[in-house]
Amino acid sequence: MSSYRVRSLNTGAAALVRSFVVLGIATAALLLLVGLARADSMIDSYQAYLSSVDHFNSSGARLTSAAQVLQQDRANFHRFGNGDYDDQYDSYFTSVSRRQMMSNMVDRGGMGSAARSAIVNNNVLVWVEIWQGGSGPYVLVSILP
Question: Is the same domain home to 99 and 56?
Fold first, then answer.
């Protein structure tokens, strides 16, 4: 009789363990689906040559941040039709209101300090990716060779 009781307890413990395993797998699958649903998505990307024209605003004042230079480049391209030879079209920064978001988008995105310095101090070719994330749109910017 006692062997039956032991077997019965072991069977119950095994069932409990199986229940926890199934619950764990279901939870992991749900978290994965939620993560996929909230995954950031790329809106657009473009290449731009940031020339000396892009380093000054419309009033002629020297720009002092990478975001300002990027914003001026897009204004020169979209508003003034004054793109550089290597500039590419983007569908996102076509309006003034969207270009005004550039600083926040750079802050939310990613750009190393070397890239920031190169953009402010040199004429450089950049690759810009525009992403939509949970906290809003952002840009990832890299210097091209």
Answer: yes
Query: Rg of the Cα trace of the chain?
Result: 26
For the whole prediction, is pTM greater than 0.85? no
Q: Helix, strand, coil: what percent of the chain each, to 5?
A: 50, 20, 30
Q: How many helices (H) and strands (E) does the chain have?
A: 5, 3
Beta strand pairing status for 136-144 and 41-50?
unpaired
The domain of 34 spans 1-39
Based on the fold, state whether residues 73 and 93 are members of the same structural domain.
yes
* Number of domains, the chain: 2
Segment 39-55 mean pLDDT: 97
Indicate if 35 and 45 belong to the same structural domain. no
Question: What are the strands, taking DSSP E only, across the chain?
Answer: 41-50, 124-133, 136-144
